[in-house]
UniProtKB/TrEMBL annotation:
It is a multi-pass membrane protein. The lineage of its organism: Bacteria, Pseudomonadati, Bacteroidota, Flavobacteriia, Flavobacteriales. GO terms for cellular component: membrane. The chain crosses the membrane at residues 12-36, 48-68, 80-97, 103-121, 141-162, 182-200, 241-259, 303-322, 334-353, 359-380, 392-413, 425-445. Keywords: Membrane, Transmembrane, Transmembrane helix, Transport. Residues 265-458 form the Major facilitator superfamily (MFS) profile domain. One of its GO terms (molecular function) is transmembrane transporter activity. Its main location: membrane. It comes from Tenacibaculum holothuriorum. It is found in: Membrane. This is Major facilitator transporter.
Length: 458
């Protein structure tokens, strides 16, 4: 099928739903560990509490990719029904998660939230490949990254912004502050609204051969064999990208799960107080606990805001790539390599900065790697696979995202960081080393079509 080139605003409209998806991911990534700590989790238990997120991705994304490849509605298209279902479920989960009364309830809501976000997210990757000619693929994924950057920055700052309007950061022991609850409610609204915008402003191409599509759709009990066959026949470029993805996502999972305990403890010197260490029947002890808890909650707001910086710098990085790739070709391999190494340096700096203001520099560098992770691997992959299987291939490719997170959650983070020392900040050092390894692994990519594609007619 000859696909026409789309304008910037057409690509913007079809990608705008990612604003809401990123609101969900940024609130989850920036504040779930804070919620877990508030509800009594020890810092060494936090990675395991996060295991729901990658496990749901491992199961949900290939399934949704497979189903969306076999879906077609003249009114709703192929991918858009999944956007909408995921948005409704994600918005409900976002609203309720900070109201969790106990740790196990919060972990359960994380499971529901991540599964719901994945229902919306996976088809968005396939939509870019569905809608755009190959010459615009890098451009399309970079526009997605631009929108993701905006969402990351705004959502990461929401609890701080809300507290500036007078919403309290203080709360009794075991209760999430109202500033966080309001921020998650705003995130739920934005998630649903942005997905609806894409659903109603974007059309999709019908299957190229409707008769063949209907025959494939009519086949029964093909899901597992198809998944297994596609895994077995994945292109060599996809396998090499899997190595890069493993170390990249190990690093970012480590950040999402451990940045709050690491930075509140090491940089802000306000670790989460442990109630068992205080005699709450003594007024002075109870007051000391409340003072320490409020300090922890306020510094957690700042950690979230600093983390938002990586969204802002990824947005700037994406904007530069948008301007460049709209006119010229890029070497995806070296862009990705350099970006990941810079992000690794940003993580390594955290252990040695003299004050929290320097976290801005760290997260700016991390943002370069984040902007590249969200665009370059998908652009390289989409040039190497059968377009008729784009949904299921993108779903399988996301296994390379969730498997390293599962490894990290099951003890990988704790084991490797404890080799350096017991302080939580060592987890950020592990993230930095992992990201640098991911950058160097780009040297494995040798397929010329994956490395670069002419984005305009010469």
């Amino acid at each position: 099928m000859n696909k026409r080139k789309l304008s910037f605003w057409e690509i913007w409209n079809m990608s705008f739903g990612f604003l809401g998806i990123q609101f969900g991911f940024a609130l989850q990534g920036g504040f779930m560990s804070r919620i877990f700590q508030t509800l009594g989790a020890a810092k060494d238990d936090i990675p395991l509490l996060w295991i729901a997120a990658p496990l749901t991705g491992l199961i949900v994304q290939p399934v949704i990719g497979y189903l969306s490849d076999r879906t077609w509605s003249p009114k709703w298209g192929r991918r858009r029904p999944y956007f909408l279902i995921g948005a409704v479920l994600s918005s409900l989960a976002l609203f309720f998660v900070p109201h969790s009364p106990t740790l196990w309830v919060a972990a359960g809501f994380l499971w529901i939230l991540d599964a719901s976000i994945n229902i919306s997210m996976e088809p968005f990757r396939a939509l870019v490949a569905d809608k755009l000619p190959e010459s615009q693929r890098s451009y399309g994924f970079v526009v997605q990254t631009l929108i993701i950057g905006i969402g990351t920055w705004v959502a990461s700052n929401l609890p701080w912004m809300v507290s500036q309007f007078g919403v309290s950061d203080a709360a009794p022991s075991g209760v999430v502050p109202m500033s966080v609850k309001v921020a998650f409610a705003i995130g739920a609204f934005v998630f649903l609204l942005s997905i609806l915008y894409t659903v109603f402003t974007t059309t999709e191409y019908p299957p190229e051969d409707m008769e063949e599509f209907e025959r494939e759709k009519a086949k029964k009990n093909q899901f597992i064999p198809d998944i297994v066959n596609n895994i077995g026949s994945m292109p060599m470029t996809m396998k090499k990208l899997g190595v890069i993805q493993f170390f990249s996502w190990f690093a970012f999972f480590t950040m999402w799960s451990m940045a709050n305990p690491a930075l509140t403890e090491h940089v802000f010197q306000t670790p989460a107080p442990i109630e068992a260490n205080y005699d709450m029947t003594v007024a002075a002890q109870a007051e000391a606990f409340n003072t320490a808890n409020t300090a922890f909650q306020k510094s957690s707001n700042l950690v979230g805001s600093y983390m938002g910086t990586y969204g802002l710098s990824s947005m700037a990085f994406a904007l530069l790539l948008v301007l460049y790739t709209s006119k010229r070709r890029i070497n995806r391999k070296y862009v990705h390599m350099g970006s990941l190494i810079l992000g690794g340096i940003g993580f390594l700096m955290m252990k040695f900065i003299p004050s929290h203001e320097y976290l801005t520099i760290s997260f700016v560098l991390i943002g370069f790697s984040w902007g590249s992770i969200l665009s370059m691997p998908y652009a390289m992959l989409s040039s190497s696979v059968d377009p008729k299987k784009m949904g299921v291939i993108m779903g399988i490719f996301n296994m390379f995202i969730v498997i390293p997170q599962i490894v990290a959650a099951l003890g990988g983070v704790n084991f490797v960081s404890n080799l350096i020392g017991s302080e939580a900040i060592n987890a950020m050092t592990v993230a930095g080393i992992s990201l640098i390894i991911a950058g160097i692994a780009n040297l494995l990519i040798t397929n010329p079509k994956a490395i670069t594609y002419q984005t305009v007619e010469e």
